[in-house]
Amino acid sequence: MRRTSAVAVATIAATALTLTACGRGGSGSTASETGKNVGSGKATGTITVWAMGAEGDKLPTLAKEFEAANPGAKVNVTAIPWDAAYQKFTTAITAGTTPDAAMVGTTWMGEFAGNDALDPTPPSIDKSAFYDGAQKSTEVKGTSFGVPWYVETRLVYYRKDLAAKAGITTPPTDWAGLKAMAKAMQTKAGAKWGMGFQAGGQGSWQSIMPFAWSNGADLTKNGGKGYNFDSPQVLDAVKYYQSYFTDGISNKAAPATPTTEPDFVSGKVPMFISGPWEMSAVEKVGGAGFKDKYDVMQVPAKVKSSSFVGGSDLVVFKKSKQRDTAWKFIQWLSDPKTQVKWYQSSTDLPAVKSAWQDPAISADTKLATFGKQLETAQAPPSFPSWEQVIASFDTEMEKVTKQGADPAAALKTVQQQADSIGTGQ
């Protein structure tokens, strides 16, 4: 999920226990399903599509092109604020009043599919066209319930000019090199803090897990049937992350409201991890010429570079009475040419790999680095209880970063809570 969904996560965490008590996933599928084919010919009829945030505001314009190509079809887009979306979806699923199709956050897929609300992806959709990590975000118990619409992953942003002042002209590729670079930013380039890591708390898992995945971690065990937070690979990653705070490279008292852009532009915090939206954000604050002062690099590896893959998926609900038209609209949105048009309108990065070959995207070297990271980026497990379980992880990580709590003990607590909560399947 994208940064714009941060507020929604609070709603998820607050309601997750209630949903579990209501038997979430009890009526859901327990085995792999095969989607039905979509009929041939042009789309007809009227469909309702829900979309959140800026995507909900911009999609109607693009939908008009679909309508022009399918004169018998009408697409009604309902724009929903992110902070109201999760509750609106769960209420609609319970009441049987879901839209025909919708944009759905990647970490919601397990729960919605577990409630038997989503229609399996038709076999006519080529799953190999999408980035593997993004495609996996649509899969629950071996069944794909939608397609990735747009993607995002996290990279290390760094001030190229200050790195040169610190004597570093080549981006590091391993953990030790990254930490040495962050320290040099302080000792040689005058930075207050070498790395702007989040000091635990809500959403901090998205900064920590890239290091776990880059250490070969698997967040599931028992054949994908259980959580696996207390593995040696995750422990190493948490210890590494904690060391930035204990060594004074990252600020354990960082404000709850991020000051990322001004701190990056001033050089106070010349490195941080974030998604592609920060490019326009830092360039706006930095002004003319600032885009030449910074660059992005892949997450340094201990085993193989990896990162978090988020974004949003497109789904069709089982209650839809216009299934064929809903899927035809989604297929149209997944066409490489449409993906490029969508990027130019929204700056959402294409989930379809071939769309990245278009000059509108390939000419940007920073975007190319995001594309390279997407080749190995990973999605979290599609367990219905993920949001509830990861909230406990964020809580424990705040103790690790701010209070110096033992990482092994913290992960043991997280694992115990995860085992108690269960996967929700």
Automatic annotation (TrEMBL):
Keywords: Signal, Sugar transport, Transport. Belongs to the bacterial solute-binding protein 1 family. GO terms for biological process: maltodextrin transmembrane transport; maltose transport. The keyword Signal applies. The keyword GTP-binding does not apply. One of its GO terms (cellular component) is ATP-binding cassette (ABC) transporter complex, substrate-binding subunit-containing. This is Multiple sugar transport system substrate-binding protein. GO terms for molecular function: maltose binding. InterPro entries: SBP. Residues 1-21 form the signal peptide. Pfam families: SBP_bac_1. PANTHER family: MALTOSE-BINDING PERIPLASMIC PROTEIN, MALTOSE_MALTODEXTRIN-BINDING PERIPLASMIC PROTEIN. It comes from Pedococcus badiiscoriae. CDD domains: PBP2_MalE (cd14747). It comes from the Bacteria.
